Each structure stands twice: as structure tokens, then as C-alpha cells.
């Protein structure tokens, strides 16, 4: 493939955003104190804030953004729908609903939460694929989004109902509704790494065949690929990626829509180029949104899910209104 001129600038942008995430926050820590802490100097309090609070938060933002960006690109290519996105189509809501059920049942370990989250995401993926098979839905981007929004609303309503049933679990469940990467530990990130590595191998294996499948099943078969196997691999990868991201940050909306849209606009319709650009662009969006969530209402913080919705909703409206969508 021809090198993309936007690839390295995207990584440079991610580096600048990541640095800003470590230097700025909702607390009273000054810029010079944060810089000193990064250099291994400064006060013990400054080093604690930067290295023990902000650094794990940055790492989780990197993983979450990468997972959602790649999952969105895969889902859009599989459904041949530029509006397909884990948050809009109910994949994230299915993941959050499964986690809420686990919390209501008394689950609390990070590993169990991750596995349950991925199982819920897998169920959501299955419903998305079924929706694309319904006559008229899979061919109409807006109708598919409406079907996904209905599913998301139903699952989130059931999640809210569970909050009323058990007040003890209400605070924990509320996390999955609002979305946040604050207060997360390295252990929670480590719990998701095995499945993220597994999904990485799957994405690597299906990327080239998926590019052929985007031209149609007949073309894919003519090139020696098996469409059913490709679809299964994509569904599993999307479930693993979305489930891991939801376990870490809650059901974040629009990340899987905005990131692939920008990646295609910069790199073209080839899914392989889109995926490469999603690697830096996804974390950039999450980390930038998280930094804004700390600064906009300092010394308090806004939920991360609110910021991603504020950033993504206008993009969705522009896509629907103008139809200026890079061809899938």
C-alpha cells in the first residue's frame, strides 16, 4: 500500500494530546509542578498526581480509544454502513447491560467484569448482524441507526430499572451509563490485555479479506475468501474490542463513528488504511475528551460520555444531512 501522508502527523498529534493529559487537570497542580514530576523531581504530591492518577488514566484512554476506533471501522465495513457504530447500534449498550446484571448479582472482580462485558457486546453484535439481514434495514443507513437506537434505549432502560431494584449496586451501575476513565487502576487495564491481544491477531487476519468483502460477497469468493468466516472473525473482534473498552470506560457513544469517518476522509476507503489511521486517532479523541472533561468545569469533572457525545453528535448530523461520506 502507498504510505499515507497523514499517518505520522496523527501520531504526533496523539503525543501532544497525551502530554497535555499529564500536565493539565481539575486539581490545583500547576504546570511547572507537573513538568517537574514528569522529570522525576518535584514534590511527592505532584509525582503522585501525575504518575499514580493521570498516567494510568492516560494508558486506559489510549487502549479505550484504540479499541473503539478499530471496532467502529470494522463494524462499518462489515455492514457497509458509514453510520454503523458500537454505541449507536446497541453493542456498547449490550455490554453495559451485561455488566449491570453481573454487578446486580454481586460480581466485582475486574476479570469477571471484562468477560461479562465482552459477552454482552457479542450479543449486541449478533443483533446488529440480524438487523442488516432484515429487508430494507441493512441497505438504509438511517433505518439501521434507528433500529440500533431502539435497541440501545431498551437495554439502557432495563439497566436503569436494575438501579431501582438494588440501591447498593446503583452507584456502580451508574458508571456504565455515564462513562469515565477516572480512578481506574493498572490491574483493570491488565485484565483486558489478553483479549485485546487476541482481537489484534483477529483484526490482522481479517483486514485484507475484509477489504475484498467490502466489494461484495461474490468478489470475495472469487478472490478465494470465505465471507462467512470473515464475518464471524469481525463479529468476534468487535465484541472483544467493545467489551474491553466498555469494561474500562463504560458505554461511550460516537467514538466508533467519528474516528473511522475521519480516518476514511484522510486515508481513503481501503479498510487497511482506515485501521492504521484509527490507531492514533481513536486514542486522540478519548484523551482529548477526557482532558476537556477535567478542565471545562474545574475543580469538578464532567462525565467522559458527555464530552464524546458533544464531539460526536454534530459529526453524525453532518453525515446524515450532507451525505458527504467516503465510499465504503
Automatic annotation (TrEMBL):
InterPro entries: ABC_BtuC-like, ABC_transptr_permease_BtuC. It comes from the Bacteria. It is a multi-pass membrane protein. GO terms for molecular function: transmembrane transporter activity. It is found in: Cell membrane. SUPFAM superfamilies: ABC transporter involved in vitamin B12 uptake, BtuC. The chain crosses the membrane at residues 6-26, 55-75, 87-107, 119-138, 144-165, 186-210, 230-263, 275-296, 302-320. Its main location: membrane. Belongs to the binding-protein-dependent transport system permease family. FecCD subfamily. This is Iron ABC transporter permease.
